[in-house]
Amino acid sequence: MRIVYDDRGGSVQHSSGTHVYMQQLAEAMRRLGVTMEPLFHNAPINPMSLSVGIKGLKRFAHGFWERSKEYKAAMATKPDVFITAYPNFFPRLYGVPRVLHLQDLAFIREPKAYNSLKARYWQWSVGRALSHYEGVLSISAFTKQDALKIYGNGLEIIPVVHHGVASGYHNSAPKKLKLEPLQFVGIGAHHPRKRWTLAVSIIAALREKGVDAWLDLIGPFGADTPKIEAKIADLNLNSRVRVLGVMPQEELIRSVKNASGLLWTSSFEGFGFPVAEAMAAGVPVFSVSNSSIPEITAGAYTQLLDAPKSAADAIITALNNPAQLFEQTLIAHNTAQKYTWERAARQTLSVWQEIARK
Fold first, then answer.
1. pLDDT digit string (tens) for 97-135?
2. How far apart, in whole angstroms, are the C-alpha atoms of residue 166 and residue 277?
3. Exposed end of the chain (fewer CB within 10 Å): N or C?
4. Which residues lie closer than 8 Å to 11 by C-beta, 6 or more apart?
5. Which of 199, 190, 351, 354 is nearest to 265 (CA)?
6. Could you tell me which residues come within 8 angstroms of residue 157 by beta carbon, excluding any fewer than 6 positions away?
């Protein structure tokens, strides 16, 4: 089977969870003998960089024209399926079925984190894709239910295929938590909905309560980087909170495995790669409770409120019950054993094959 997939963002390593998803899925598919060919790898523009004004619209129009030509040429080669995780509407050409891999609807649920023009474009294009594409696949039951709520009935038959995590995370077992010092990691882009300033405030609240807590923030710099750095400085945590940027995968895996816990403050996730990775590595998850997190963890995590002091209290309560925390981490670790790319590839391939046969 030959697949052409939308690889926008592919020219920037670790640019987004969506790009990581596509790259890992493509690698797993190759091991199954399935060819996945990237498209739009060097696209000059995509709607996420759409800005307000004539200049922004011209850039968008130019990028759209370039992508249209590349898409038409690729479809003329008659691949079995075209897949995209980006909610853009592409017409069906040469009889090639299109499949949307629906990640999340954060642009609707978290509008303050997105330019309003971008959000309106995404909402329109997702609706078009859901009603016109030959297939849709959701990365979580939460995302599927969210689509049902927003776009209405008719989406009940969408299959759900959870992500996998890199095999390196699976090669460890839960360990007893070392109480002092507490070395947390937070992993993800510096995007407003990740709320890393809240994570920094939680570290400050823990230290005020006498807990020797540290935090490493790992992930691409972005729009919220100045706010994160300002919060660290305001709370006098420059020696306690490190902003490390992107790491090579092997180094990232080591950092997660050596951590006391994952501190997760995102306001919205379609899946939550770092959460699943920490679970697989046998590392406790301390997370706010929203969107896909209860589903992915099967409830085996320490739930945090959005207020720093309350979150710190929840962490301290968990630390004071080490046996219970270890049991919870073990349950999460066992749950994460199903999050492999081999399983995700097999299930996804079955969906593609069914769509291609129609």
1. 999 999 999 888 887 777 777 778 888 889 999 989 999
2. 8
3. C
4. 41, 42
5. 199
6. none
Task: Return the axis-axis angle of helices 308-319 and 196-208, rounded to nearest 10°.
Answer: 60
Q: How far, in Å, CA of 348 to CA of 144, rounded?
A: 16
CATH number (3.40.50.2300, 3.40.50.2000, 3.40.50.970, 1.10.10.10) of 2-164+340-357 reads 3.40.50.2000
Residue 246 contacts by C-beta under 8 Å, 6 or more apart in sequence?
Answer: 13, 14, 218, 219, 220
**57 falls in which pLDDT band (50, 70, 90)?**
low
CA-to-CA separations, 126 to 109, 117, 163, 176, in angstroms, rounded? 14, 14, 20, 44
Query: How would you label 330-343 residue by residue, b for 16+ Cβ within 10 Å and e otherwise?
Result: ebbbebbeebbbee
CATH 3.40.50.2000 domain residues, the chain: 2-164+340-357, 167-336
The alpha carbon torsion through 34, 35, 41, 45 (nearest 10 deg) reads -70
End-to-end CA distance of the chain: 15
8 Å CB contact between 139 and 160: yes
pLDDT value, residue 15: 53
Sign of CA dihedral 70, 71, 72, 77: positive
Q: What is the pTM of this model?
A: 0.91
Counting Cα atoms < 13 Å in the Cβ hemisphere of 281 gives: 26
The pair of structure tokens assigned to 358 is: 């129609």
Segment holding 112, helix H or strand E: none
pLDDT value of residue 345: 97
pLDDT at 248: 92
∠ CA 181-182-183, nearest 5°, is 110
